[in-house]
Structure formats: C-alpha cells, structure tokens
What we know:
A hairpin with a 2-residue loop joins β10 (212-222) and β11. Helix content is 41%, strand content 23%. The strands form four sheets. It has a four-stranded antiparallel β-sheet, covered by helices on one side. A three-stranded antiparallel β-sheet has the order 5-7-6. The chain is globular and about 65 Å long. It has helices spanning 2-15, 20-26, 41-51, 81-97, 102-115, 120-128, 130-133, 171-174, 176-183, 240-256; strands spanning 31-34, 37-40, 55-61, 64-69, 100-101, 135-139, 142-146, 163-165, 205-209, 212-222, 225-232. By secondary structure, the protein is α+β, with helices and mostly antiparallel strands.
Amino acid sequence: xxxxxxEVLAFVxxxxxxxxxxxxxxxxxxxMKRWGANLNVSNxxxxxxxxxxxxxVARREGGTRVYQTIEHPPRHDSPEAPLARxxxxxxxxxxxxxxxxxxxxVYVCRLLSYGVPHLAAEVRQLQEHAKSRYAHAQxxxxxxxxxxxENPWAVRHQVDDRLRFLAPFDPVVWDRRRFQLFWSxxxxxxxxxxxxxxxxxxxxxxxxxxxxxxxxxxxxxxxxRLQHELGFAGLRPRGSAFQRxxxxxxxxxxxxxxx
Length: 259
C-alpha cells in the first residue's frame, strides 16, 4: 500500500487537479474490505494521502473531491526542531482529551505517528518520556496523565440539570477506555455494525445528565417529526426532573434541526 500511495502521489503531482476517477483509470488497484464495505482502493489511497497532509482538496464538483498535491518546502531546521514540533502536536491532543489513562496516551501517540509519519520517531521518544513532560498520578492502580499546571481535581464548572445528547466523537466520549472507567459501562458506535447485531442502534448518542451518563439515545426525523428511542445502562430515572430535562433536550434538538 505504501508503494501504491507513492505512485498515486506522483501521478497527482504530474497530473495537477485530479478526480478519483482519473486515478482509477490510470491504476488497477481493485477493491478492499474495510468497515464492513467493499471500498475502492484508489479512493482509500487518496484519502490516506489527504489525511497525512500530502494532498489537499482543491474544490468539490457535485460532491466529488478534486485533489492537488501540497508541496512542502525543504526545512533547514536544527536537529531539535522535529522533536519540538512533535511535542507541540502531542501537547494539543493531551490538552484536549486529558485526563488520559496511560493506555489512552499510548493510543493517542499511535494516532499521531500515523497522521505525521515523518515525526513518528520523535513521537515515540516523547511517549517514552511522558512522565517528565506531563503531570501524572496513580489512581485506583491506573496511571493517569494531564498537562503540567492543570489541577484535575479543581471544580471549574458547576454541574447543571440539563440533559445533553453527546456525539460519538465528543471529547468526553471519544476515549472509550476512559468512558468505561468513569461510568462503568461500555459505549460502542455501531453505525458500521450489521443492523441485526446492533445493541444500541445505528447512531446512539450518549446521554449526559448532570454528572451521570445514563445511557444513549437514537434520534431520527420521520415525516417532519423528531422521534426518539432511549436505552439505559441502569434503571431509567424516575420523577419529573428527568422528564423535564429530556423534554428540553428534545426541544432544543428540534430547533437545531429547524423542524
């Protein structure tokens, strides 16, 4: 795949503005199984090059991406500069997602190495010295990391009584490992799971009420009306407070969807 990617990159550099169909006509990459679907390998390579910052989307025509290469000028850096750049990128991710259990920090480093492969060695070096770069502590037998100077025990926001539908990629939800440590149940995005195997639904959104992650909600619009199905990790809350919070959240979603 690396060799194919380099061939596609060279083709786009020579060809200029390139449609996926241009790459498909030039190369016979075939198809591949991924995410439960049969994908075109040429499209997969273009998307991978785009993700790694080697191609950009110049424009879209009828929803189709038109790609161009990004020419990076040669750097005349000191030997320490790549490590500084990798550290800056990793710091941004840690600030966004902390506190991170150690295993999640390793996963973040792996993602960063994939996204900026030319800094992979520097990212590995940062991972090995994470304890000297970030504040950390053992909590219930697990090592946690967060930015220096940040107090993870400080109360920065008062908890309100709103109910919130969170996206599967919300920073609170994205780290599935931490999610389960905090709320003692496993959340999964099942959009790519066959319908008959889904436990939560096609696009289940975790429901955060106060400090409790109650369960999940599936929302859809049918004949111009918002419909909802709820699932709960434990018992459904009783009383009017939850019903009022749910009603307000659904009303807010209707307004957002302009129903």
